[in-house]
Recover the amino acids of this structure.
């Protein structure tokens, strides 16, 4: 709190009141001797991500596979969009695919 007092040049009562207001609004979390920002991020479940924007993912996958020739090399990263793309690639021949996504590997095993 001393740093806040020095930085803003206000009284300890004002700092406490303002911190309490920020905490009651959910903007910060107060702890003994410190404060921290409230996290506004939430982890979305894999199942939810998999179906979120599914039509858009399908469109992306469809457009991508139209542009790819057989026998190309691809690196497929982590993500549910890349998994949708992998499904669309199953009919391509002689692809070289490097992946770091267990779900993509599982999809490719079905080929």
């Amino acid at each position: 709190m001393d740093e806040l007092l020095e930085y803003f040049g206000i009284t300890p009562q004002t700092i406490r009141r303002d911190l309490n207001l920020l905490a009651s609004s959910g903007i910060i979390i107060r702890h003994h001797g410190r404060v921290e920002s409230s996290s506004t991020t939430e982890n979305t479940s894999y199942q939810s991500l998999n179906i979120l924007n599914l039509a858009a993912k399908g469109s992306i996958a469809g457009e991508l596979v139209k542009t790819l020739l057989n026998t190309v090399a691809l690196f497929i990263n982590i993500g549910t969009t890349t998994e949708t793309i992998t499904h669309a690639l199953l009919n391509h021949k002689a692809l070289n695919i490097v992946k770091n996504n267990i779900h993509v590997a599982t999809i490719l095993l079905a080929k």
In short: The mean pLDDT is 89.
